[in-house]
Amino acid sequence: MNDVTNSHVSQLCNERGINASDVFTDDDSIISGDIYRGGIFLGCEFGKAYLYIWAVGLLAAGQSSTMTGTYTGQFVMEGFLHMKWKRWKRVLLTRTIAILPTVSVALMQDVNHVSGMNDFLNALMSMQLPFAMLATYLFTASKTLMGDFVNDRKNNIFMGVVTTFLIGLNLYFVTNFVMENFPMTWLVFVGFGVFLVFYTVVLGFLTLCLLVVLGWHQLTKLPLIGGYLEERYEFKEFEKLVESCETLNEVKMVPQ
Q1: Where are the alpha helices (DSSP H) in the chain?
Q2: Selected residue with higher pLDDT from 255 and 168
Q3: What's the pLDDT tens digit per position in 134-184?
Q4: Which residues contact 209 (CB under 8 A, 6 or more apart)?
Q5: Alpha-carbon distance 130 to 138, whole Å?
Q6: What is the dihedral sign for C-alpha 204, 208, 210, 214?
Q7: Angle formed by the axes of helices 186-213 and 114-140, to 10°?
Q8: What is the value of pTM for the model shown?
Q9: What is the Cβ-side half-sphere exposure of residue 152, based on CA atoms within 13 angstroms?
Q10: Contact 122, 65 (CB under 8 A)
Q11: Is pLDDT of 254 > 50?
């Protein structure tokens, strides 16, 4: 699509019988490429079949990245929050929290603004990612929880550097997205500021929990929040699973 004019693509679309007059105007201006226009361009250039190939490709990309990431974060957060609900209730709550913002954005936008919608959804996922990353780092660094499979010093350092970099990068992109796509009024600044304070407090709490796991046990003596930073895990179900596996192995070893 580099250096391709709207009139050229409009002519291709007319030849293929694809009505794209609302996408490509009949003038000599250069195409402004995005996800939606890219799919239409492929259909006009190579045939209608490529419209469906492009759509299936986008769907597959979304399934492989978004669903894998959100399901992983969901399962991690369920364990982190010690949710004692039935599985279907936990899935209903966590899936609703994860999907509701996405569905709301999709309903508010039309297909012609799919690229802008994609940027908005990326910003939403960027805000959610640190919670899953910190929780995963916290669990894998806990000797109490992981036992012999706990991260060693090199892995902890690597995880710390990568997590800090990605969280900082995500916060930068989210802030940049808000500055570019929202009007700079006092209401926006106040709303974004309140949200940023709440967001930072939650991330700060998770960070303190992580530091305790990494050996900074003196943080548990902090007033008001110190007691909430202690590691509290229950292994009843895990111990039952281990006992069942050991029993099964013993049965297999008994000569018949």
Answers
A1: 6-16, 35-46, 49-62, 68-80, 87-108, 114-140, 143-146, 153-181, 186-213, 236-253
A2: 168
A3: 888 888 888 877 778 888 888 888 888 988 888 888 778 878 877 877 777
A4: 138, 229
A5: 12
A6: positive
A7: 20
A8: 0.55
A9: 1
A10: no
A11: no
